[in-house]
Amino acid sequence: MANQFEPQQTSLDDDLRMLSETLEEVLKSSGDKADEKYIEIKSRAEQALNDVQSRLSSATDSYCAKAKTVVRQADSYVHDKPWHGVGVGAAVGLVIGLLLRR
């Protein structure tokens, strides 16, 4: 079930990284350095970029920690009750087989 959301999250992470890299390039290469309005906008954009990067970093760490917790719980459940794991696997295989048969 975690795999279902992984491509979407990876895509979102990649999009946000690309956006932040593009914004960094724009901030480095544009505007008249003497213009006060440019300096103010650049300062706000840099602050927003730093905020987004820090939130993205902490969110990624949080997702990894949650995934590891779920994997550990599933592993301990299967080790504690191996026949339940076999039964669930057989049931899932049966359902997939019936769906593919049609």
Could you give the topology of this structure?
Layout: H1 2-29, H2 36-80, H3 82-101
Helix pairs in contact: 1-2, 2-3
Keywords: Cell inner membrane, Cell membrane, Membrane, Transmembrane, Transmembrane helix
Protein name: Stress response protein ElaB
GO cellular component, one term: plasma membrane
What does this structure look like?
The chain is an all-alpha fold. It has one domain. 91% of the residues lie in helices and 0% in strands. The chain has 3 helices and no strands. The protein has helices spanning 2-29, 36-80, 82-101. It is elongated. The two termini are 24 Å apart. The mean pLDDT is 77. Belongs to the ElaB/YgaM/YqjD family. This is Stress response protein ElaB. One of its GO terms (cellular component) is plasma membrane. It is found in: Cell inner membrane. The chain crosses the membrane at residues 82-100.
H-E string: HHH
**DSSP, total strands:** 0
Strand content: under 5%
Span from first to last CA?
24 Å
* Relative helix content: over 70%
Unreliable spans are none
Q: How many separate domains?
A: 1
Characterize the biggest β-sheet.
none
Compute the average pLDDT: 77
Query: Radius of gyration in whole Å, from Cα?
Result: 23 Å
**DSSP summary: helix tally:** 3
Q: What is the general shape?
A: elongated
Class from helix and strand fractions: mainly alpha
